[in-house]
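User: Fold this; tokens only.

Assistant: Input:
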Amino acid sequence: MASESAETLGGTQGAHDTLSRDTWVLKHKVETVRDRERAAQLPPRQLGITWQNLTVRAASAQAALHENFLSQFNIPKLASESRRKSPLRTILDNSHGCVKPGEMLLVLGRPGSGCTTLLNMLANKRRGYAEVSGDVHYGSMTAHDAEKYRGQIVMNTEDELFFPTLTVQQTMDFATRLKVPFHLPAEYQSKESYRTEMRDFLLESMGIEHTRDTVVGNEFVRGVSGGERKRVSIIECMATRGSVFCWDNSTRGLDASTALEYAKAVRAMTDVLGLASIVTLYQAGNGIYNLFDKVLVLDEGKEVYYGSMKEALPFMEDLGFICQPGANIADFLTGVTVPSLVSRRMAEEYSYPSTDEAAENTKLFREGVKLEKDKGLNQNSPLTVGFLAQVKACIGRQYQIIWGDKATFYIKQAATVIQALITGSLFYNAPGNSAGLFIKAGACFFALLFNSLISMSEVTESFQGRPVLLKHKSFAYFHPAAFCIAQIAADIPVILVQVTMLSIILYFMVGLTMSAGIFFTFWILLVALSMCMTALFRAIGAAFDTFDGASKISGLVINSFIMYTGYMIIKPQMHPWLGWIFWINPLAYGFDALLSNEFHGKTIQCVGTSLVPVGPGYSEDNAACAGVGGAVPGQSFVTGDDYLAYLSYDHSHLWRNFGILWAWWVFFVAVTIFFTARWRSSSERGPSLLIPREHAHITDAQRQTDEEGQATEKGGRKGEAQTSSDDSDGSDRDTSLIRNTSVFTWKNLSYVVKTPSGDRTLLDNVQGWVKPGMLGALMGSSGAGKTTLLDVLAQRKTDGTIRGSIMVDGRPLPVSFQRSAGYCEQLDVHEPYATVREALEFSALLRQSRDTPREEKLRYVDTIINLLELHDLADTLIGQVGAGLSVEQRKRVTIGVELVSKPSILIFLDEPTSGLDGQSAYNTVRFLRKLADVGQAVLVTIHQPSAQLFAQFDTLLLLAKGGKTVYFGDIGENAATVKQYFTRYGAPCPAEANPAEHMIDVVSGHLSQGKDWNQVWLSSPEHDTVSKELDHIIEDAASKLPGTVDDGHEFAQPLWEQTKLVTHRMNVSLFRNTDYVNNKLMLHITQALFNGFSFWMIGDSVGDLQLKLFTIFNFIFVLPGALAQLQPLFIHRREIFETREKKSKTYSWVAFVTGLIVSEIPYLCICAVLYFACWYYTVGLPHSSTRAGATFFVMLIYEFVYTGIGQFIAAYAPNEVFASLANPLLVGILVSFCGVLVPYPQIQAFWRYWIYWMNPFNYLMGSMLVFGLWDTPVQCTDAEFATFDPPNNATCADYLADYLHGAGATATLVNPDATAGCKVCSFSSGQDYLRTLNLMEYYYGWRDAAIVVIFAFSSYALVYALMKLRTKTSKTAE
């Protein structure tokens, strides 16, 4: 091993001898597999890839302007701009090359030079680019022919996309199941044995067997460490068993020894299996560089060098570029940017596709792929295993996902039970007479409604797994249909459980018909309906690219379906222009069937107000039913079938409707499959850098000046011509950078977290210090606890126990510590709608001390922007990951955000260089060095540092697995001190090796010689010196005055200033978030028009009173759609706040909540106006301004009520799915008890005395009903009169005298003088009806309106309260 590294660079470029190639430990296993396949006479799958004149263009980044809320309505300007052709930018310019089977090509270039685009082209992913010209041949196939082999031409992208709740083993099981060949060599007993052997081999190849049962995790779910997650994505890609592999920066976040192991693995597999591997790497060490056959260097899309790896260095040196001894050759090549000629010898290769060898290889390749394919698959299918096997694997994974996210599953089930109990008690024991008709119908309606609302969360879930699905699609794992079928299979048990619990509780509490046959019919109808609605919402989710679009449509669909179920508006009363919805509405078929099932063959007695006349002295023989559908004159009862006929239902429809529900289900599933097969990933959608419209003029001006300054800009950007400029302006810049005099120490630091398997120690007695002017490196292999140590030191941990002392100047940490220490985390979390400059100014204004004048803070921002070379991007929106700034640009913004705050104690950076190319990494570290020289204290965790980078650091803290210290102390000139330490304990560093890589190999890699290096350190004289020195530093510092004066403020700015700045940022962000605002407005307009035209110009009959009640009730239902949009936004903002801004004490949670609330206000006002204008007058409510104005006021306040409700749920919800499940529960309860579904007198006493009075919807409905119905006349239609004959030829007036003065005081007798066929109408004016709803006087309207205002304030108060409850304090050392 030592000899290998010795040969790495020294004059001998011959590192290609067999030794270094065969060093991968597991190479023999790959050879075994190959030999078995040969023995079984399976043809090898070797392709190779050749490309010529490849030119790629995309829409220019400058072409994309981001419209804001107002500019999107500037039609003339948009029209004139749309005529202009957007300029195209060349990303790849005339690229060419050839990688034969068994060769590896290293593609080098700075970020933005087109490396990823080249890989996309070679991996045959051409979407999203404006034009692609040139030839790419795979073997002898053209790119078009190769499309059906997409599973063989594979690309591993920079993004890690996984289902975060699956374990590593589950993830790999799924990948390997779908790539088991049809014909196996004889040695394998079964496909399963082949698969497990392959899975275990892959886990072992990247050294992550120990993570098998850990969940993969993501930014928000704790899982394996970042480096381990990267390795999972590497082996998942290898599991495809492809022939051409493109690896895009696959070593990002891996430490040097793991990265080298990875490169050796790729080398071994390429050699043995004859693959073609194309790799882009940033910061590749020489050990890795020497494993490649060829190198291609790109600069701004042009090829600077293409040729063999051995010739690259001499070639460049002949041109006069000198490579420093010990430098990374790859970094050196990236830095050279002179367009030069390609060595001519490579040109012969371009004829490779037309050679016999290529043709033969391609023929064998096609046969090989054909043999691997399952017999049942179509010849052109890129997949490997048969459809049934795909479905089986997908179903297994679907259950694992549900099981991995048990919390959501349990919440769903608990919500169902609670909801069923509450609804059951609401409709408790419905009577079998006319009073129970509406209540039983309500119970059936609710059973449908609840199952539909729960299935609405499918829309959210559809978007969560989508990126993973697209990745698997590009690996040709499964057909989208298999995934859709798996989702259905996973639905079945969940829905069965859900429906069974709901049915049993609801059915028997309400007291529906006690007959087994009728109960099971009820149950099976609900099952069919739930399956159908789940499929519907899944289809809606699949049909849309963006969540916003899908949530808009799903809100509209659920609203129209609810209204046209036949409960709110009965079938005969539907207007013809929207009545067709009834026929395409699964809920309507379900409701028809449920009611027919319940009322068929019943006799329903009329009672109470439905029976006229009633009271002492009146008999049922001379009375009739009033206002009950299907009543026959002179009869005091209604038959169930008459009632159904009145609703235009029929018992004979029952099983017909059951069939129709399943037909709809099949249709929705087909739609889902159709759209799922057409999903595109976001990177296939065009340019991602957006400039907000209001900054367009700034960037135009900059572009004008840039044209002349092109040459200098180009040189400057490369970091070559910078050194001269740095020195000249160094002096004045240094004065503005902040100095620091505090010593930061930590001693005997331990950190323990609780895991299911017991306590786990992540840090074990770590100690050290950072002094002003010192640049400290914190190193260790992946998972050694580097990030953990930084989190603990920066006071960012909220759980676990910390022991030991952390001090500043020998004193406990001051209040302002979190604010005065800058901490750049690994994940770059930013507000997506802010520009780079805004993000930096926001941080500077909030975090620099309150005594600094504003101008000075903004000047400092410019200093930092120039320092980090962000001036080209200063007015660009940051955007989301994957759509917006690139990884490297985001990283610079993260560093900038921390630097502009002028951290006064020290700066922590967690892997600031991962994801950067060598040049940017060097610039970043050189810049940190500059800060340290000015007197700043800096502590950095770093992966894969090159020798030059490592030389910039002063001290090193080296950790081994489990957070144990292996070394702490000076690095020394050219790392002499560290090398000497390791040499003394038997691990000398070879002269040419990179000391940083060598140490990690020694501590955790293959050079560890089985020693416990932690014990070696503890017993070394260096350790004793460090301990003494540490005590001395603490005593010394404690005896002097503190270096930084703590101002005693937790936040740098007073609360009012924080609130102003945060609110301004939120306002700007919403103003630019046109999707969100437009959706909100469209939701209100569509729902208002829909509501208005469904209840067009309501008349004055008794039945119309019910319609007025329902049209007002419908206004409540803007809530579900609005919450579905508002909560993800809130939660996303909260994540930005909690991951970064809260922990760095940028601003307080009070300012955060205030900013969120205030920024919504203008849009809510517009929404209320739009809804009122579209709805109030179409429905025909009173026109007088006192009534209309009062109604508008209540509607306006309701906008604030529901926003408050949505935000307080979101404030405490752990994630979006939780919020979308909590919504139906809360909304369901509020809607149930507002006195509409069950009138006040019939609500159960338990609920009636508290929840009814605490319910905002009750007061909303009350005030709007009073303003809309009081003093309106009522005229019965013919069917609504109670018609009966008085006894003994008395006149109607005489017979009814007692009744009209007693029980029937509100009724009107139309024909007092008749002796037969008396006609009685049960109400005479609107307030008679309102009094049955517990609205006794007109002033109740204003009383209720005032209470709604109180609710608006209290729901906002709850947002503050729950946000405060959620805000955990950071742990301090005990």
